[in-house]
Design a protein that fits this description.
TIM Barrel, about 35% helix, transferase, zinc, HCY_dom
């Protein structure tokens, strides 16, 4: 009898949970999004949010670092040292690492000794104003592999001071462009990753916001699979490949396409092995995020699925487990996925009767 594929549960959408449940408002004046709370004196709300997901059943807690960037910190107003009411314009690059170390500590505190921490790293487009991770339309200076690689390297270096014992995974999330996936792959070597993060399993996940089953830049699933998973001499192969920030009803067909693409590559002699699968769809009921207004709007003509979110997602996971290809599965939620979503998801997975919550290797 085949060994059951282990499943871990990831947390949900931090930014939207902070807005919906913790009375936090984000705008163009808070370009760091959730990370803004690290500099505004509101760490307690980040901790509460992490803890809520942990209590809901998440095995993996993501850090509040998705939208951090050097430019984002430079554009952020912060309290002057020793004051509450006075603000200063911008945070210098040299100051950033201490905030990021705190983000990791907060996530690790919530995860506890039995949980794990994923370092959340969004794409370049997530740091643009307005953000463009759903369209993949980047400024002219960041339209090619070299520039995107330089940007990601500079951001990774900001995490040089984090406690290496408090980060278990590095998650490059919502990557909407093939050239950016290639740029990230190019960084996966000991020379490019800070000492504090070396050896950590990496996953790369992408969004599929449109109805054509392609990345926002038009790249196909097959191109994504090759870019993420093909063995390259001298570079680490990602531990996992994933889909996030995507409607839950799209997952079943997308996962099957991922599986077909991997099987085809292996059959054709590509140097590729089965990775772990990471799935964290939006928890929306048809709403689409408007990056210009920073609001969620119901898309015209959308028909809500009859089955609950957690039922659809759990069935995708169970079907993938039954097919038996993946090394392990990580499943959670993205935007608008609350602690209650995660609680119901865990309960539904447990109802299948053989869910393993042991750590995935």
């Amino acid at each position: 009898m085949a060994t059951p594929i282990p499943v871990q549960i990831l947390d949900g959408g931090m930014g939207t949970t902070l807005e919906d449940m913790h009375d936090i408002t984000f705008s163009f004046e808070t370009p760091l999004w959730s990370s803004h709370l690290l500099v505004s004196g509101e760490e307690d709300k980040l901790s509460d949010c992490h803890e809520a997901f942990k209590q809901a059943g998440a095995n993996i807690i993501s850090t509040a670092t998705y939208q951090i960037s050097i430019n984002g910190f430079a554009a952020t107003k912060a309290p002057r040292s020793g004051t509450v009411d006075e603000e200063r314009e911008g945070i210098e690059k040299e100051e950033i690492p201490r905030f990021l170390s705190r983000a990791v500590v907060l996530a690790a505190n919530a995860a506890g000794t039995e949980g794990k921490v994923a370092l959340s790293l969004g794409p370049y487009g997530a740091t643009m104003i307005p953000s463009t991770e759903y369209s993949g339309r980047y400024d002219p200076e960041h339209q090619h592999v070299q520039a995107l690689g330089k940007w990601h390297k500079e951001r990774l270096d900001l995490f040089k001071d984090v406690d290496p014992n408090q980060v278990n995974y590095i998650a490059f999330e919502t990557v909407p462009r093939l050239d950016e996936i290639v740029a990230i792959r190019n960084l996966l070597s000991a020379d490019n990753i800070p000492t504090s993060l070396r050896g950590r399993p990496v996953w790369i996940s992408s969004p599929y916001p449109n109805d054509d089953g392609k990345l926002p830049d038009g790249s196909t699933v097959e191109e994504v699979v090759k870019a993420v998973l093909t063995h390259r001499e001298g570079l680490e192969t990602p531990w996992g490949i994933g889909i996030n920030c995507t409607k839950v009803e799209k997952l079943d067909s997308l996962v099957k396409r991922y599986e077909d693409a991997i099987q085809t590559c292996i059959k054709n002699g590509e140097q590729m092995a089965w990775p772990s699968l990471v799935l964290y769809p939006d928890g929306t009921k048809g709403e689409v995020y408007n990056t210009a207004t920073k609001t969620w709007e119901l898309s015209p003509g959308h028909k809500e699925t009859e089955a609950p979110w957690e039922t659809v997602l759990a069935s995708v996971v169970e079907a993938a487990r039954q097919r038996g290809n993946w090394k392990s599965i990580v499943v959670g939620g993205c935007c608008k996925a609350s602690p209650e979503h995660i609680r119901r998801l865990r309960r539904t997975l447990q109802d299948y009767g053989h869910m393993s919550t042991s750590p995935a290797a």
